[in-house]
Design brief:
Number of domains: 3
Bound molecules: manganese (II) ion
Largest sheet: 5 strands, antiparallel
CATH architecture of the largest domain: 4-Layer Sandwich
CATH superfamily of the largest domain: PPM-type phosphatase domain
CATH class of the largest domain: Alpha Beta
Length: about 350
């Protein structure tokens, strides 16, 4: 039997002498003999198949201990062992791929949601109006929360609108995702609804609010208070009135102008604390953009002031000037009801 020097064997096996020395050092492929005088490693040509197999297994990143097992097995069992190894790797990669996708998603949203680069300037005001002798409207504007609520007439209604907004002010959104933000808002509104029902006097209130976390805005809405958005020069209504006349318009039984002048136009189909069933709040998730201007208001404004006037007020540079202008506009229209309005400029 003609033994090969490490150089010749390496060439024959298409490996480097360095790789062969490594396989020797970990006991995978000891040379057939070591020259007692020179210390040179000598290899049997029959070892070429094993050397190539080791190299192939290392290219698929099989751990050395498993390579040793594969080398010790007869061919069919060795094939099964390699197949089993690869199935394990593939399964692990699939799991990793899911984790990577999740992580990439989190990281790409992180900047957007978690870093609070938006600035919100805001103003809130309520006014009794020219006709009523009490004010049951409530309004709040803060960095994270914008809210208006229109309580039914009487002290219980004033307490209800204040309680609805207080419940949202207390809400500390967790670090969860958008769905968590909405869920927290829904739970808070549900609790207010239940607590109002529990008083026995059934005080009720509308509620329209935007809860912000970073650029995420969670919108909650019950009743006929409204949220508007001025974006890109377009004023859009973000909420649908929960009123009897609105239902009639939807069913084609009233025209929008008939609804606007209808004596029952203030009749609500949904309100917090009202009716035998827990209230169903409208919930939506929105994204705030720099340049957005939001208006939240009670029907004391939206029922009497033209949309064009709302729009003009939102064009004013300062939120404080906008709410002043809006209340003036309601007075110019007779201010028959309490007025609540909140204006927020996002930049
Ligand atoms: Mn009202």
């Amino acid at each position: 039997m003609q033994l090969l020097t490490i150089g010749a064997f390496a060439r024959a096996a298409r490996l480097t002498p360095k790789a062969l020395r490594l396989y020797d050092s970990v006991g995978l492929l000891p040379p057939a003999a070591v020259d007692p005088e020179t210390g040179y490693r000598l290899y049997d040509p029959a070892q070429i198949a094993d050397a190539r197999l080791i190299a192939a297994l290392r290219r698929i990143e099989m751990p050395l201990a498993e390579i040793r097992t594969v080398l010790s097995l007869p061919a069919p069992a060795a094939a099964e062992a390699v197949d089993a190894f690869w199935r394990r790797v593939a399964a692990g990669n699939a799991t990793r791929a899911e984790q990577v996708a999740l992580l990439v998603g989190q990281l790409s949203r992180r900047d957007h949601i978690m870093s609070d680069t938006l600035t919100v300037r805001h103003a809130a005001r309520t006014d009794t109006g020219a006709v009523r002798d009490s004010n049951e409207d409530a309004a709040y504007a803060g960095d994270r929360l914008l809210a208006v609520a229109d309580g039914m007439r009487g002290p219980a209604g004033a307490a209800a609108s204040a309680a609805a907004i207080e419940a949202l002010k207390r809400l500390e959104p967790s670090a969860g995702g958008a769905a968590a933000l909405l869920a927290e808002l829904a739970v808070a509104v549900d609790e207010v609804d239940r607590s109002l029902r529990g008083t026995g006097t059934d005080p009720c209130t509308t509620l329209t609010a935007l809860l912000r976390r970073g650029s995420q805005l969670a919108l909650v809405h019950v009743g006929d208070t409204r949220a508007y958005l001025l974006r890109g020069g377009e004023l859009s209504l973000l909420t649908q009135d929960h009123t009897w006349v609105r239902d009639q318009v939807d069913h084609g039984r009233l025209s929008p102008s008939e609804a606007a002048g209808h004596p029952q136009r203030a009749l609500l189909t949904r309100a917090l604390g009202a009716g035998p069933q827990p209230v169903e709040a409208d919930l939506a998730l929105r994204t705030a953009l720099p340049g957005d201007r939001y208006l939240l208001c009670s029907d004391g404004l939206s029922a009497v002031v033209e949309r064009a006037s709302l729009r003009e007020a939102l064009d004013l540079a300062e939120p404080e000037a906008a709410v002043r202008r809006l209340i003036e506009a309601a007075y110019e229209a007779g201010a028959p009801d309490n007025i609540a309005c909140v204006v927020a400029h996002v930049s």
